[in-house]
Amino acid sequence: MKEKDLAAYQGSEFTIEWYSDKSGKIPALEFFMELTEKEQNKLFLLFRRMGEFGRISDTTKFNHEGDQIYAFKPQPNRFLCFFQLGKKVIVTSAFCKKQQKIPKREKDRSLQCRKDYLKRVELGEYYEN
């Protein structure tokens, strides 16, 4: 997939990008598309703030979850992500929050996506030329 096809938001500070697995599926985007317009707008506002200003200081809206994984937090949903060289934020997965802590399997899924992304980028297999 081409880099521009994965961009969720292009800002002056960061580009927010959806993660795509080897088969071309984009799990977080699929989750996003099932949300209401109001829920989608909440996330887009967070993407815009991160993209244009480079940070979201309100931890109820964006938070470090450990192991280089972060979460956009448009209530009640969570969109897990990580920062990448080239001023990118890669959104790996999403889920509806039902408990205080992020479920271990959700964080593990995001960590696996990060590992896959880094490996495929290093091998030149992630983005089409």
Write up this protein:
- The chain is of the alpha+beta class and 129 residues long.
- The chain has one domain: YaeB-like fold (2-Layer Sandwich), CATH 3.30.2310.
- 36% of the residues lie in helices and 26% in strands.
- A hairpin with a 4-residue loop joins strand 1 and strand 2.
- The longest helix has 19 residues, at 104-122.
- The radius of gyration is 14 Å and the shape is globular.
- The termini are close together.
- 30% of the residues are buried.
Describe what is shown at a glance:
The chain is α+β, with helices and mostly antiparallel strands and 129 residues long. The protein has helices at residues 3-6, 27-33, 37-53, 104-122, and strands at residues 7-10, 15-18, 62-66, 69-72, 77-84, 88-96.
Low-confidence stretches: none
Tell me about the largest β-sheet. 6 strands, mixed
Using DSSP, what is the number of strands?
6
The spatial strand order of the largest sheet comes to: 1-2-6-5-4-3
**For the CA atoms, what is the radius of gyration?**
14 Å
Number of helices: 4
The average pLDDT value, as a whole number, equals: 93
Structural class: alpha+beta
What is the architecture at the second tier of CATH? 2-Layer Sandwich
Q: Tell me the overall shape.
A: globular
- Total separate domains: 1
Reading off the top of the CATH hierarchy, the class is best stated as Alpha Beta
